[in-house]
Amino acid sequence: MRIGFFTDTYFPQVSGVATSIKTLKEELEKRGHEVYIFTTTDPEAEDFEKDIVRMPSVPFVSFKDRRIVVRGMWFAYKIAKELQLELIHTHTEFGAGVLGKMVGRRLEIPVIHTYHTMYEDYLHYIANGKVVRPTHVKHFIRFFVNHSTGVVCPSERVVKTMRRYGVEIPMRVIPTGIDISQFNRPDITERMVQDLRSDLGICSNQLMILSLSRLSYEKNIQTIVEQFSEVLQCHPEARLVVVGKGPFREGLEELVEQLELKDVVRFTGEIPHEKVPIYYRAADYFVSASSSETQGLTYAEAIASGVQCVVKGNDYLYALLDDERLGATFESDQEFSKTLLSYIDQDYKMTEELKSRKLDEISAERFGADMEEFYLKMHAYYQDNPVKRPISQRRPVERVRVKIASLKKLEDK
Questions:
Q1: Does domain 2-177+365-411 have CATH number 3.10.129.10?
Q2: Which CDD domains match (predicted)?
Q3: Cα dihedral angle (385, 386, 391, 396), rounded to 10 degrees?
Q4: What is the pTM assigned to this prediction?
Q5: pLDDT of the residue at 403
């Protein structure tokens, strides 16, 4: 099958969405499919990239490190037609996503959508939440998603959100998988781990608590910092390592200074991708208080690296951490330090058998297989159920048939 991905976010932009798309492309190609990415221009992008089509874009409002496609419909359509695409998969509700729907309509092929971002968690970025309200998000997403053939939900939380919004098209929960080989690495030696801890000023007998994510307000790293003093009361040797970059770093550093934690909290900034597995392996526990996740790639990466998680719970994490030896969840921000301390005291051990079972569930191979199955079902569904297609995707004769059917229903009443 020839598939076109339409996304506003892709490398060299670093994000969970970009990683998810790259992983899916590679897995589908392993299964014999052709995948082409239609995405934004980027000043840091290479001049020539195989299978990638870049369309004119500008920085996104309030997210200057993200971009949005502003034009290129005819350009994208001509290329998509030349490539003879058989299915389009949109990964954004904005610029490139809209273009993807328009191209899909003109080519008369199914359009699958993945809902990656819980926008209600990000409204504070737009005029401090005073302009765009949750009800605006609901109506916009319902309109956009319902004009697709099917929707991929990375977690059960997304399914519940889609239903609350009034989405009526077929849904499928497909968690994003990860490349297990990048994190379950026997080549990472104890010497490498100790060298990293030494660079961070952390001795072998000290607890290393790791936070790894984009440094933004909704990631709620401030809760971890605010309660770290309580962790130190029981474990004065503990050290918090905050990995990542983002707009809230300065605010977090100010908070650390106010709480007089500069000696025990380390900010590393963004680190090279190849070093991420070593940070996981060096940590004693991975922590997160974020409630904005739809697909927790970092949680899966932590488990694949063999580090236990203490994180704020949601439907995805309840399924992921289905054994107490993998980690623990807490419900409210106030419970973070108490949950972490309790989990440290219980000293659970992650066995290789348990880890192996979980790795199969979160693997990129499973991700690709599940997505391929959904594509095939939705392709057949699109062909066999023209009445179920969005009005805009029906051929003129089909629109007439739907109209006649509707009139007959009215006459029967």
A1: no
A2: GT4_UGDG-like
A3: -170
A4: 0.85
A5: 47
As a whole number, the mean pLDDT across the chain is 90
Determine the residue type at 68. Answer: I
**How does pLDDT run across 285-309, given as a tens digit for each residue?**
999 999 877 677 999 999 999 999 9
Residues 6+ apart with CB under 8 A from 196: 275, 278, 279, 282
Higher pLDDT, 342 or 58: 342
Pick the CATH number of 180-359 from 3.40.50.300, 1.20.1420.30, 3.40.640.10, 3.40.50.2000: 3.40.50.2000
User: Which residue is associated with the tokens 């997210």?
Assistant: 63
d(CA 290, CA 174): 21
Looking at the predicted structure, is the pLDDT value of residue 406 above 90? no
Task: Identify the pLDDT of residue 68.
Answer: 87
pLDDT digits (tens, 9 = 90+) for 38-70: 999 998 898 889 999 999 999 876 566 678 888
The C-alpha atoms of residue 224 and residue 255 are separated, in whole angstroms, by 11
In whole angstroms, what is the distance from residue 288 CA to residue 209 CA? Answer: 10
CA distance 287 to 332: 14
Written as one string, the DSSP assignment of 286-324 is EEE-----SS-HHHHHHHHTT-EEEEE--HHHHHHT-ST
**C-alpha dihedral sign at 272, 281, 317, 29:** positive
What stretch of H or E contains 26? Answer: helix 16-30
Tokens of 132: 């765009």
3-state class of 269 per DSSP? strand
| Average pLDDT of the residues in 202-224 | 95
pLDDT band at 411 (very low <50, low <70, confident <90, very high): very low
Q: What is the distance between the alpha carbons of residues 133 and 150, in angstroms, rounded to a whole number? A: 26
The per-residue pLDDT for 63 is 61
Q: What is the pLDDT of residue 11?
A: 93
Contact call for residues 324 and 253 (beta carbons, < 8 A): no
Using an 8 Å Cβ cutoff, are 226 and 199 in contact? Answer: no
Domain map (residue ranges) of the chain: 2-177+365-411, 180-359
Whether residue 227 contacts residue 337, with contact meaning beta carbons closer than 8 Å, is answered with yes
